[in-house]
Amino acid sequence: MRLCIIGTGYVGLTTGVCLAHLGNHVICIDRDADRIEQLKKGIIPIHEDGLAELMEESMVGERLEFSKSFSYGVTNSDVLFITVGTPSLSDGDVDLTAVKEVAQDIARCMDGYKIIVNKSTVPVGTQKLVTGIIEKGLSSDTGFDVLSNPEFLREGNAVVDTMHPDRVVIGADNMEAAKVLSGIYAPMGGRIMFTSPESAEMIKYASNAFLAAKISFINEIANLCEKVGADVSEVALGVGLDSRIAMDFLKAGLGYGGSCFPKDTRALVRFADGHGCSLKLVKSAIEINEMQRLRPIQKLKDSLGQMAGKIICVLGLSFKPNTDDIRETPSLDIIREIKKLGGRVKVYDPKAMPNARKVLEEVEYCTDAYQAARDAHALILVTEWEQFKKLDPVKLKKLMKRPIFIDGRNVYDADSMIELGFEYYCIGKKDYGWPGNAK
Ligand code: UDX
Q1: Which of 122, 154, 208, 331 most suits a substitution to test ligand 1, by most atoms within 8 Å of the C-beta?
Q2: What is the pLDDT, as a whole number, of residue 433?
Q3: Which residues are catalytically annotated?
Q4: Torsion angle, CA of 341/343/344/346, rounded to 10 degrees?
Q5: Ligand 1 pocket, 258 CB below 6 A?
């Protein structure tokens, strides 16, 4: 099939590369000319395991091209995928500007029947909205169908998730068009599910809201565990082994971040409010998450008292491991709060420092975790990168001015850390008499 991907972010680029890998001819277009120039040279603007290899293979095989020309992409393809961003507006509503502009551009360039597939996360009703915009903008009476096909890939795991989906959701008014799209996905396996466009659009928001609520639920239970001497890891295992609940997304920590959960939960709440429906559970999940990420600050205040002049080492800037993405990451909120209280911050992250430098000034960027820990009065582990799981605690302790270790992702063994002389705090386990862990 001849496919066009409109928008080369995480979703678009990964989808385009994977579909080219499966033998389709794919043109990826983007209005960002610099990005297209880089991609033409094989330079990927995001960090995503396995993507570079697949991209090179498809470029060499001439199944994958990049262009900044909208009309070139549209006129040379049968199926067009909309994969542009749908960021948050300041009031939490979703900003559909990019989707609407793409719909207008498609209408302007269409030279025959096309299937238009929306993969961007959009509220219910957007398939109809896009259909209306294209109808209005068409200069000929060319036919077309707009399908809703939400994307569920996780950053850092994008290639594997795309190639091996749990399910493919296709929301369509026209089954003929839906069958064409299902044929494109068939080689990937996974259950293909046909729904109305409205249900497909809702499935994406409901999935993200459910997962966000699951994380906030276990974080709330974790906070209670601390008070009553239970251990949230044991609780999560015991709860998750119930097949109705399942183990995934029951890891307590500093809460969720990233480009999807925070934005999509806010958008869903606003959308529901607009329909006179208050989503109390989702609102609570958001509130719990906002409080959870700042738990280390209370711990710092408990132990250090005044923060002014204190050096705090923050390990991890990306919102999760294996990505350089810092969107809505807990680290930024934690660092900004420390600075507000007068503390100095030293940071290290294996991949996210270039992105952080664009938005975060007046922190000391270090070359590794040990350099970041030197002279620190406290260390906060925010992102559970593999290399942060294998640090040498004895070496860290020697380097630090005061061995306060706030383990925001429950990576280390509490008893061993306390035995080594750390003032150690983690999430959802008895607090061992914090501050100072007096036994
Ligand atoms: C998510 C969804 O998983 C994906 O289906 C959707 O398409 C986009 O949003 P992503 O944002 O890439 O993907 O990250 P994910 O791996 O789902 O993690 C989201 C956040 O939840 C991270 O901040 C992570 O640290 C946090 N998390 C996840 C927890 O705190 N505990 C968990 O048990 C799982």
Answers
A1: 154
A2: 60
A3: 260
A4: -90
A5: yes
Q: Is 200 in the pocket of ligand 1 (CB under 6 A)?
A: no
- CA triple 271-170-30, angle to 5 deg: 75
With CA atoms as reference, report the closest residue to 192 among 166, 167, 221, 174: 167
Tell whether ligand 1 has an atom less than 6 A from the beta carbon of residue 155. yes
Q: Which architecture, in CATH terms, is 204-291?
A: Orthogonal Bundle (1.10)
**Residue 260 beta carbon below 6 angstroms from any ligand 1 atom:** yes
249 close to ligand 1 (CB < 6 Angstrom):
yes
The domain 293-437: what is its CATH number?
Answer: 3.40.50.720
CA distance 278 to 172: 28
Structure token pair of residue 392: 């040498």
Q: pLDDT tens across 117-167, in order? A: 999 999 999 999 999 999 999 988 899 999 999 999 999 899 999 999 999
| Residue of minimum CA distance from atom 3 in ligand 1 | 154
Which atom of ligand 1 is least distant from the CA of 254?
30
81 Cα–ligand 1 center, Å:
24
CA nearest 181: which of 51, 76, 81? 81
Is-contact 200 272, C-beta < 8 A? no
- Which stretches of the chain score pLDDT less than 70? 432-439
Residues of the chain with CATH 3.40.50.720: 2-195, 293-437
Amino acid at 29: I
As annotated, the residues of the chain forming the CATH 1.10.1040.10 domain(s) are: 204-291
What Cα–Cα distance (Å) separates residue 394 from each residue in 391, 399, 402, 415?
9, 9, 13, 14
Ligand 1 atom 31 nearest Cα: 251
Q: The tokens of 275 are what? A: 């329909």
What integer pLDDT is reported at residue 439 of this predicted model?
A: 46
In terms of Cβ atoms closer than 10 Å to its own Cβ (0-12, 13-18, 19+), residue 365 is middle
Tokens standing for 103?
């719909």
Is residue 61 within 8 A of residue 96, CB to CB? The reply is no
In angstroms, what is the span from residue 419 Cα to ligand 1's centroid? 33
251 ligand 1 Cβ < 6 A: yes
- Give the number of the atom of ligand 1 that is nearest the alpha carbon of residue 323: 12
Q: What is the pLDDT of residue 432?
A: 67
This prediction has a pTM of 0.94
What does CATH list as the number for 2-195? 3.40.50.720
- Give every CB contact of residue 241 below 8 A, 6+ residues apart in sequence: 247
Instruction: Compute the CA torsion angle 172, 173, 175, 180 (nearest 10 deg).
Output: -50
Calculate how far, in angstroms, residue 219's C-alpha sits from the geometric centre of ligand 1.
14
